[in-house]
Amino acid sequence: MRTAPPLVQMRMSFPSSLNFSPVQSQTQSTEAEPSPGGPDTAEKPRLRAIDLARKIRQEKAKTQSETRTQETDPPVSGSQQRVTELKRFTTQLQNVHPNVLAKHLHRTVLHRDKDVVILNKPYGVPSGVTTITSVLPVLCKMLDGLKTKTDTELLPCLGLEKDSSGALLLARSEAVLEDILSLSRNNQVERKYWVITVGVPVPSEGLIDIPIIEREVTGPTPHFKMTLSPLFRMNEAGDGVTKVRSHRQAHAAATKYRVLDSSYGCSLVELQPLTGVKHQMRVHMAYALACPILGDHKYSHWSKLAPQKLPERVLKKLGLEQTKSRYLPLHLHARRLVLPGRSQSDVAVSCPMPKYFIKTLNRLQLMFPEDKNDE
């Protein structure tokens, strides 16, 4: 029969400065006794001093980090918060799984038939091969039914820039694509865009017919930009224009414009490009009319790459600081698309505006043409 070992009594002398209460002494005596289960029962591991010190240091570092974040990040306004949310949403759309992006595009379809599909492209998502084009096969299956075998495809016709939003036209076959491109070259596809400009165009309606060319901008950060390459210039007397030799690499570019409303030094302008030159509308508004599009940080300055500088009254209405203007999105929206019908009537689509565009209009007190009974 196994017997428990006898208790060993130990006497220890402590300095007089340490006073132990009876409860403490009793606790220590209890801890010194063996457990009822005998030596086979494992004791709980005690918290070592080094572990406690490490835990205290981690909590202290976490507290200091949160304090620094609160001190360095001032409270943002409602407009700045919306800009941040838009930036986060755009980043999410560019990094989501292809099936998720295809489902989102499927919900934005505005028109579909056997020849074409028109969807509402979100802001910030490129229409090139890396994003929207890469998910078009999945979107095509969603439109035709996932369980149905189909030979149709979706091909981008008239692309949109990454930072623009609105009506994106897709063809269902190569033959339809060629027909649409031919119609576009003959100016038979009507495309109208709505933009918010910094400044009020004068006159309020007209045609900008100035060729565009790509040139290198020298400086601290050399880069390339599209710019104007006019065929006429003011003569030395200043009372007329003189025709100059056109550059061989310049592209003919024509843009119709019409001011729909203006307020606080900004305007809601309808643009109708008659040609398809790269960045045509942005260049014509910024350099021909001196009214750059709101959020166009590329063409607000010619000699440098810098965020768009806004007048104080505009910043105040938008609830922004100048240092935060770099996060303003480009306010360029493909509003209306009219495509001549092939075997039926014309296809006409009006594309709803994104939320950030509507909120900017409201802040600047710019009204839609419908609100003014203006067709």
Automatic annotation (TrEMBL):
The record's section on Pfam families has: PseudoU_synth_2
Q: Does the keyword Mitochondrion apply?
A: yes
Q: Record's SUPFAM superfamilies? A: Pseudouridine synthase
Compositional bias segments (type: Basic and acidic residues): 41-71
Q: Which UniProt keywords apply?
A: Isomerase, Mitochondrion, Transit peptide
Q: Which family does it belong to?
A: Belongs to the pseudouridine synthase RluA family.
Name the PANTHER family for this protein.
MITOCHONDRIAL RNA PSEUDOURIDINE SYNTHASE, PSEUDOURIDYLATE SYNTHASE RPUSD4, MITOCHONDRIAL
The protein here is known as Pseudouridylate synthase RPUSD4, mitochondrial
